[in-house]
Amino acid sequence: xxxxxxxxxxxxxxxxxxxxxxxxxxxxxxxxxxxxxxxxxxxxxxxxxxxxxxxxxxxxxxxxxxxxxxxxxxxxxxxxxxxxxxxxxxxxxxxxxxxxxxxxxxxxxxxxxxxxxxxxxxxxxxxxxxxxxxxxxxxxxxxxxxxxxxxxxxxxxxxxxxxxxxx
Length: 167
Description:
This protein is an alpha+beta fold. It has helices at about 5, 25-35, 40-50, 50-65, 95-105, 130-140, and strands at about 85-90, 110-115, 120-125, 145-155. A four-stranded antiparallel beta sheet has the order 2-3-1-4. β2 (about 110-115) and β3 form a beta hairpin.
């Protein structure tokens, strides 16, 4: 149910990334969908105090703003992608063009700018070792500004969740 804790949250104090503030009701909707992405809008509406139509509109707005996606999360290894790796990348110069180029690659599903020994980390999902080698050697290392890469090949996926809630 819609709790006092949800109602008292201030999204505006958290929002430093240029996106519009998210109110407490939208945060509650997000939490409902993180628990079950197929939860009916009518059920969500009862939990957060809105009509089904209002929930539908808010969900669409959150998707349009890029705040959230509703997708089926799979273990890539079980659906034909036999090789998954995290690639640490050291960059010379501006990180943005390299990060943008990585984000545009079909095989890359996650790109973050980091502090530490790597400038960027990219998660890569490939069909096999040859495909991974091609992505690293011919695509990532070929990008202007890439100085070095280090690959961390996944042997087994033990946990993958996106249910961290909201703050």
